């Protein structure tokens, strides 16, 4: 389920695109006092509401979005996902904390700078695509460029390029009502892409689509990400979507980030009982990699049978091991990093490799 595709520009840890620290968004009367007051800020949501009439939609959240990654914000309805992502460009005003984009303080931006941020640097793709009904596909896609003041010929040429990129070639002159839901969503995506933003912010963009079209669109995002290495922040309440798209996932509950990690870390080393329950039914073999499943160490043989890449998922390794009837090597740059056999692979499927309490990305314990 994970995106193991090789990126031309893999995510980097230096110079995050967004850097968020101690972020709070409290709705309700005298919201400002909540983050400042140790007693109030420690209350659970129901008690806080009873005491103050306030809802803390985002509670003391800190994270970086790295350049080139797909950063997924996941959680159940009401956990604070939309509020958090809207705070990034101040579509919702944060109550406390800091937000920087490329080192620039978003909370200190004036109106003009904010407009520039939303138009050029961090474009949002909404669930309801916000298409203009009387305009053609091409003009809808060109709309963001028009707002930026780009001339007609230039913006139409640019829009035509992006329309092709999202697979809508030949539909340029249609109106939105003449498109399917998935095609409309592609127009919304193309419109955001046309302005060539540094970051794309997706707010549950595919939740209204039927499952097959949804899968198509997910693959489209994976493809765009692979080809362009564009930084994306993606909200979803759908775990399989999060696991499929995310390089890293922030799992939210009651306004807090309860775990931030790769799909493999979240599924393989849940931070607490809530996360464990959340990921209980995930087919682990589609998420866990052989790097984690292998017995580390060179096989000492000359041939390295199997030749699995370290990021191959266990499901693929099972096919290799079952096909050959013998253990397979995990190989990187011609070097054997370790070996997986059927026992290790089954241990991952069964979840028994967690026994002994593996945590974070530490080497896992022996399968039993
Ligand atoms: N304008 C508002 N005024 C008061 N409370 C709000 C407001 N907007 C959101 N909330 C509350 O903040 C909490 C988080 O809402 P938010 O919409 O961010 O959650 P979400 O995880 O995006 O949910 P969903 O998946 O249903 O969209 C909820 O309890 C919600 O009721």
What does this structure look like?
The protein folds into two domains: 64-279, P-loop containing nucleotide triphosphate hydrolases (Rossmann fold), CATH 3.40.50.300; 284-350, Alpha-Beta Complex (CBS domain Like). It has helices at residues 33-36, 38-41, 45-52, 81-88, 111-121, 137-148, 152-165, 181-194, 211-228, 239-245, 263-268, 273-278, 290-293, 314-324, 342-350, and strands spanning 18-27, 55-65, 70-75, 96-101, 104-105, 122-125, 199-203, 231-236, 248-253, 256-261, 295-296, 328-332, 335-340. With 368 residues, it is of the alpha/beta class. The protein is globular, with a radius of gyration of 23 Å. The protein contains 15 helices and 13 strands. It is 37% helix and 20% strand. A six-stranded mixed sheet has the order 6-7-8-3-9-10, sandwiched between helices. A four-stranded antiparallel sheet has the order 2-1-4-5. The chain has a three-stranded antiparallel sheet with strand order 11-13-12. Bound molecules: adenosine-5'-triphosphate. Residues 27, 55, 57, 75, 77-83, 237 line the site of adenosine-5'-triphosphate (ATP). The site of adenosine-5'-triphosphate has 12 residues, from strand 2 and helix 4.
Write the layout of secondary structure elements.
Layout: E1 18-27, H1 33-36, H2 38-41, H3 45-52, E2 55-65, E3 70-75, H4 81-88, E4 96-101, E5 104-105, H5 111-121, E6 122-125, H6 137-148, H7 152-165, H8 181-194, E7 199-203, H9 211-228, E8 231-236, H10 239-245, E9 248-253, E10 256-261, H11 263-268, H12 273-278, H13 290-293, E11 295-296, H14 314-324, E12 328-332, E13 335-340, H15 342-350
Parallel strand pairs: 3-8, 3-9, 6-7, 7-8
Antiparallel strand pairs: 1-2, 1-4, 4-5, 9-10, 11-13, 12-13
Helix pairs in contact: 6-7, 6-8, 7-8, 8-9, 14-15
Adenosine-5'-triphosphate binds next to strand 2 and helix 4.
């Amino acid at each position: 389920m994970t995106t193991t595709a090789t990126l031309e520009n893999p995510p980097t840890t230096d110079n995050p695109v967004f850097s968020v620290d101690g972020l709070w968004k409290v709705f309700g009367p005298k919201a400002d006092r909540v983050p400042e007051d140790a007693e109030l800020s420690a209350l659970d949501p129901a008690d806080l509401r009873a005491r103050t009439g306030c809802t803390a939609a985002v509670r003391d959240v800190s994270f970086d979005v790295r350049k080139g990654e797909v950063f997924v914000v996941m959680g159940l309805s009401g956990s604070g996902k939309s509020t958090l992502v809207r705070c990034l460009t101040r579509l919702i005003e944060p109550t406390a904390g800091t937000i920087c984009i490329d080192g620039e303080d978003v909370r200190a931006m004036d109106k003009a700078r904010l407009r520039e941020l939303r138009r050029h640097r961090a474009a949002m793709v909404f669930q309801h695509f916000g298409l203009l009904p009387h305009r053609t596909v091409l003009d809808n896609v060109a709309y963001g460029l028009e707002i930026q003041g780009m001339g007609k010929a230039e913006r139409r040429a640019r829009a035509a390029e992006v329309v092709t990129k999202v697979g809508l070639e030949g539909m340029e002159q249609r109106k939105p009502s003449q498109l399917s839901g998935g095609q409309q969503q592609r127009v919304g995506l193309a419109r955001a892409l046309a302005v060539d933003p540094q970051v794309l912010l997706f707010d549950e963009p595919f939740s209204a689509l039927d499952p097959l079209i949804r899968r198509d669109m997910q693959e489209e995002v994976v493809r765009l990400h692979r080809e362009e290495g564009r930084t994306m922040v993606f909200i979803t309440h759908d775990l399989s979507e999060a696991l499929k798209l995310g390089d890293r996932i922030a799992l939210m509950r009651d306004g807090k980030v309860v775990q931030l990690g790769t799909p493999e870390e979240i599924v393989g080393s849940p931070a607490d009982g809530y996360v464990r329950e959340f990921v209980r039914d995930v087919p682990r073999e589609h998420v866990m990699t052989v790097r984690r499943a292998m017995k580390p160490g060179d096989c000492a043989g000359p041939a390295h049978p199997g030749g699995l890449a370290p990021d191959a998922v266990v499901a693929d390794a099972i096919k290799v091991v079952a096909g050959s009837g013998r253990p397979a090597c995990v190989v990187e740059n011609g070097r054997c990093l370790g070996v997986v056999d059927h026992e290790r692979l089954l241990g991952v499927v069964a979840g028994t490799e967690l026994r002994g309490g593996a945590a974070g990305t530490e080497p896992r314990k022996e399968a039993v």
